[in-house]
Fold each of these.
Amino acid sequence: MSAPTLDRPAAPDEAALQAQFDATIAADHRIEPRDWMPEAYRSGLVRQIAQHAHSEIIGMQPEGDWLLAAPSLRRKAILLAKVQDEAGHGMYLYSAAETLGADRADLTDKLIERKQKYSSIFNYPTLTYADVGVIGWLVDGAAICNQVPLCRSSYGPYARAMIRVCKEESFHQRQGYELLMTMMRGTDAQRAMVQDAVDRWWAPSLMMFGPPDDDSPNSAQSMKWGVKRHSNDELRQRFVDMTVPQAEVLGVTLPDPELALDPATGRYRFGAIDWTEFKQVIAGKGPCNDERIARRRAARDDNAWVTEAATAYAGKHSR
Ligand code: FAQ
């Protein structure tokens, strides 16, 4: 403790602050923005939350590509609402990162300069309208599996943002499944389109959960701090177990000859994932990385005048 003065009580020293932080985590209470936190906890959260926010914003592109070609007004309205929701998710998440001292414009610059990542899944193209349904079913399904436990994350603003995000992702997943159900009740060509989309998106969806546990540098510490509640492999397994019965109801085949129920555990065994492809995609060499970043860059640069005007207006009012 530093020496107290007449008008200022002694500031607790770092060891006392660390002990208080550890006790908060051990009691499963939330850390809030004004609480002291270790620098590695803060920077680790900014890393994960920024990556998550970037994923929501870049994730608008693959489905956004179909907004003008939606097959009916109803499908267009649903898709428009979904893509707008993803923008909202990005905004809640950037706000959560700001409570940790991050600057939103700076995070966007880091994304565009490829100094921060976004989810591997959004580097694959959407070739047919069935891809919109499969993204809802598999990609939002995987996002729900991954994000529901984050509603109990130890950092308050992140956990609270996740509650609304998960409710909306749940609607997204159902709209995707309903779209696919409709196509599966349609023509042979429509059924083939759905199967082709499932064939292309299944493996990338499994990669969304991140590298295997023995190759995941951030997991152990993140779980100790209660930021992540389950390991990458646990959540991936949960997703497979949840999805196989849904595929059976839908009438599609998941493209993995090794997929089989293990009667001993009641869980599904599945084939090896191509981690070389995953590493290539997160290193910027996936099928659509360049296109995604180029569009995000153009959106930032072309709309800089809007940001400038809004900032000047806000400044004038705060004065
Ligand atoms: N893609 O040590 P770990 C959505 C990176 S939102 C790219 O295991 P961690 C909604 C990882 O960052 C989808 N990079 O890392 C939607 C780290 O690199 P770094 C996004 C990945 O953090 C639906 C390195 O690999 N969701 O889909 C990926 O403990 C439809 C080592 O990995 C979230 O962000 C990947 N798949 O676990 C929108 C959820 N996996 O940062 C539109 C929150 C790993 O050290 C349409 N995030 N990396 O340079 C998380 O739960 C975690 O951050 C993980 C990764 C599980 C993603």
Amino acid sequence: MQELSHFIGGKRVAGKSGRFADVWNPATGEVQAKVPLASKDELDAAVAAAAEAQPRWGATNPQRRARVMMEFVRLINRDMEKLAEALSREHGKTLPDAKGDIQRGLEVVEFCIGAPHLLKGEFTDSAGPGIDMYSMRQPLGVVAGITPFNFPAMIPMWKMAPALACGNAFILKPSERDPSVPLMLAELLQEAGLPDGVLQVVNGDKEVVDAILDNRTVMAVGFVGSTPIAEYIYSRGCANGKRVQCFGGAKNHMIVMPDADMDQAADALVGAGYGAAGERCMAISVAVPVGDKTADALIEKLVPRIEKLKVGPYTDGNDVDYGPLVTPQAKERVLSLVQSGIDQGAELVVDGRNFNLQGYEQGFFVGPHLFDRVTTEMDIYRQEIFGPVLSQVRAGSYEDALRVAMDNEYGNGVAIFTRDGDTARDFAHRVNVGMIGVNVPIPVPLAYHTFGGWKKSGFGDLNQHGTDSFRFYTRTKTVTSRWPSGLKEGGEFYFRAMD
Ligand code: NAD
């Protein structure tokens, strides 16, 4: 059995705690590796080493730091196939989807090559007689990122690239379910020229997360994962005086207006609902057609498309639509939520419970499910299912549909499908959700915009990537400077306004 490691001081380091977690191959149902779960002492040592390495890295000029990012981009492209294979093997997603996961991370690294421009400060010449004022952005020191299983390449890159480009040292605590790609990325960064100790990958579970939150040297924590853990990390991190941003779970709606192109809407729903087996924070899990006629038409279009979906292991080629869930527990949870939907009176239009794949009977596959006549009181509506289950909530009018999305406690993404510009514009302005798609089902902003949800999908005041990430990972220092022209004056005892 393969034993994975941490990445500390520029090399792979075996775990010392004696505690391990299983890493599955979700397609076969076998445990393929063990990942060490670090202790508080291991974390504290990794932070102390990072704190030693950071001042030199922070003093390296931004252009040189950006060059490390440039080389990192080249190396990721060089190793794309290898990274995608490792990602699919541990996560279960298809190879094209694994490459998308890497690509969306890579694009943030590309954005970070602009660090010299993004870190430029502000300057006011002659703010007063002989007085100049300037603000600079300085790194925080040692910062940390705690990331989820569902994007094991993209989200670690969203966290570490801006943090490192800003001159910080970074502690990455990836998901214990698929830790191989983050370790490979750390090696590539080192090959790209990142000095030893500036990036430490410390694997683990709650014990190491708590150690990060309580470590006084760690100045900021960026988290992505489920909402209960996001709330916990946000409150404990803030209570310890850290800068914290946490991105949580989601329940994303797609409003389908009667004037929408139904084929386009059905295609979008199938891709956004079942892609990656529904294990995406931007997956559409609720369709909200306006009017019964629209709802019936949508079901008619959806059913044949769903029945055609090809579910299988990533090794079966590029025409597989989605793979298994990540763990046996995830499969069990999804199936029990499906049962609750049936028990609470939703209409199961497509039943994926008895899905079986010859040769992969032990894999964590779940067939696609479609529920109609779901109400907002049901558990399948209230909970984030994170599986291949699409629910249809029928709305009587546009205002009703808008209210469904607005009353939901999550606010990550939402989409509207319509041919009417006025409706689309009204929706985008009024809905209380962070990322909106107009005839676009998964509106994930590109690297140079920012990504973040509202309500229980996001905690903290800055988003991920884009310019916000450069704000999050730096702090502002403002200098007021005067070079007297020779005459010394006495002290002043009033709060001076600039003349
Ligand atoms: P998770 O919350 O179980 O785990 C996320 C991280 O927190 C992991 O590194 C894990 O080790 C750690 N963790 C787990 N339990 C902990 C505990 N009790 N105390 C401290 N740390 C703990 O999430 P997941 O299952 O890995 O990922 C799926 C979730 O992430 C979904 O809810 C999904 O919507 C969300 N997600 C959100 C975004 C976003 O940007 N909003 C993006 C991707 C995923």
